[in-house]
């Protein structure tokens, strides 16, 4: 699309492309949020669970990681509820 | 670009801006409060002291933000 084109009234085709653009934007934003969250969880659970890296992940480390991921998700819920719901 | 004049797109952008701000706040506080409140290895369930620490942590952060703003205002 060239920015010097006259601002023609929105034709059906440009309506379509704006909608496609918005859908794509939503998908990409969701991906970016998920990636950022994943990266945070990786850092937190690595600190908590892999205290002394061995030649492979031990059973204890694996179960710590599962619990850590679950608890971090739960903690995110607790924090957002206490910020937005419990405002007195 | 025609799309930039699209009111629906503008609305989406404003909505997403707000969501991004809220998300960032939640992510930052979860990270900070996790470090403060979850001191041992994560269990299969939060203890009541851990979950109340998380709740208190977020709310005290908000109280503190208000206090800091007031402190700065009183300096002017």
TrEMBL record, chain A:
Highest taxon listed in the record's lineage: Eukaryota
Protein name: Uncharacterized protein
Automatic annotation (TrEMBL), chain B:
Highest taxon above the source species: Eukaryota
The protein's name: Uncharacterized protein
